[in-house]
UniProtKB/TrEMBL annotation:
The lineage of its organism: Bacteria, Pseudomonadati, Pseudomonadota, Alphaproteobacteria, Rhodobacterales. Keywords: Signal. This is Arginine transporter. The keyword Signal applies. It comes from Paracoccus hibiscisoli. Residues 1-20 form the signal peptide.
């Protein structure tokens, strides 16, 4: 019984840490989110389902440098175009699920 209680406590205590990711961190720090942790957590959950960790790191940079998003969107590079398609899917799902 003691082991069960300890294991349950460990899961509860580490769950918020598992949720944090590059999108969540950048979102919470951004002026636009104004520290809205539940919204940022939701957006991170969508990112976990739709973007690789590498894509998440790239998308997180957009919170600090929105002009970078414009540069990627208008890029002629195949890799940027493929990322932008994944990012648009992520953004659409985030808008739909994280109101």
């Amino acid at each position: 019984m003691n082991r069960f209680v300890i294991a349950a406590a460990a899961i509860v205590m580490t769950a918020p840490l598992a949720m944090a990711g590059p999108i969540d961190t950048a979102c919470v720090r951004s002026d636009r989110a104004r520290g809205n942790a539940p919204l940022c957590g939701c957006i991170q959950q969508v990112a976990n389902q739709t973007l690789s960790r590498s894509d998440q790191r790239q998308a997180a940079r957009f919170f600090r440098d929105p002009h970078r998003a414009q540069e990627v969107r208008t890029s002629k590079r195949d890799a940027d175009n493929a990322f932008w398609a994944r990012y648009r899917n992520f953004a659409a799902q985030s808008e739909r699920l994280c109101r």
